[in-house]
Amino acid sequence: MPSSTHQHGRVTAAFGRHYEVAPLLTDADAPESSEVDWLGATLKCYPRGKRSVFACGDEVEIEATGSGQGVITRLLPRKSLLWRSDAFREKLIASNLTQVVIVVATEPGFSDLLISRCIVAAESQDIKSLIVLNKADLPDKLTPAARRLEVFARLGYRIVECSARENAAALRPYLADERSILVGQSGMGKSTLTNALVPQAKAATREISEALDTGKHTTTFARLYPLGANGWLIDSPGLQAFGLAHLAGEDLVEHFIEFRPFQGQCRFRDCQHESEPGCALLAAVADGRIDRSRFEHYRLIKSEIQSAKKQSQGW
Ligand SMILES: Nc1nc2c(ncn2[C@@H]2O[C@H](COP(=O)(O)OP(=O)(O)OP(=O)(O)O)[C@@H](O)[C@H]2O)c(=O)[nH]1
Ligand SMILES: [Mg+2]
Ligand SMILES: [Zn+2]
Fold first, then answer.
1. What is the pLDDT of residues 161-200, one digit of tens each?
2. Core vs surface per residue 184-205: b (16+ CB within 10 A) or e
3. What spacing in Å lies between the alpha carbon of 175 and ligand 3's midpoint?
């Protein structure tokens, strides 16, 4: 039963055992809890019960226990959940997102397979994807990097070029009123973008050479920042792998949006799109209606899901 000590909160950082939770103002007439300008006013919260795991972005019910601390008593329903997994482990990344912002840069080089993985994760949760090409201030490298993104642009994914160092304003309209997470490889500039967009953020950034030398990522946990009146932005640690073992293999094809028109068009109902005669997907790859690199990404992710399923079953 709600009492004065019960309130709604948003998980702004997850540290495993404890969480940072920002209190939310709740309005009985409004369908959604509204955010408050909470920077610096978060509570250190522990979950009630040992097994509960929360994600950055979760809306929770908390009970203040005094001196800036509290207990998480309930998880409110998640509208979306981004997580990664291999055969043995699952890791929550963030929840209640409206958008995944995939950050790549003119340098260091980026993986287009990782972009496809991020898009698949977003599509599987019915949330938007946006690709940011950062470090546009390095002109020699801009054209080749932009060219590598054309395949995604042709599919309709939005691409924004900007420079976190010089001017990140181009990105602002895409983030207004959205609940976004910045994801991508280490060194692409996610934290620098966060600092440019959220002046109070002071997210840790470090020279890439130093980051690579120590083999560590600059950002070690995801953190949520308020952005504009109704939105927020999560800065997350660099992704090295983005395992999607939790996806059902048969659904994967749907998360490659350009494959959808060919679904159900193969000669065999149970076509695996490997080497079967009359496969509509293979035919579309052969005549260029489906990009070969995207089909390759599909194959790699699919075989990874299959082998993770076998491993976790102990085969
Ligand atoms: N030239 C240039 N350098 C940038 C830009 N944005 C970021 N950098 C530099 O790139 C390096 C990495 O930036 P970070 O913001 O720490 O990268 P990150 O994506 O947060 O990295 P992780 O936290 O390790 O995932 C730093 O040296 C930044 O100064 C940019 O727009 N232009
Ligand atoms: Mg970072
Ligand atoms: Zn087929």
1. 999 999 999 999 999 999 999 999 999 999 999 999 998 7
2. bbbbbbbbbbbbbbbeebebeb
3. 38
User: Does residue 203's CB lie within 6 angstroms of at least one atom of ligand 1?
Assistant: no
Phi and psi dihedrals of 63, rounded to 5?
Answer: -125, 115
Residue found under tokens 């990140």: 168
Residue range 275-287: average pLDDT? 97
By the CB criterion, residues less than 5 angstroms from ion ligand 3 are: 266, 271, 273, 279, 281
Residue 310 sits at the vertex; the CA angle it makes with 308 and 313, to the nearest 5 degrees, is 105
H or E element, residue 43 = strand 43-47
Any atom of ligand 1 within 6 Å of the Cβ of 106? no
CATH number at residue 48: 2.40.50.140
Q: What is the pTM of this model?
A: 0.92
> Range of 218's domain?
81-235
Between the CA of 193 and the centroid of ligand 3 the distance, in Å, is 41
User: Separation of 50 CA from ligand 1 center, angstroms?
Assistant: 37
Do 294 and 209 lie in one domain? The reply is no
Q: Is residue 240 part of a domain?
A: no
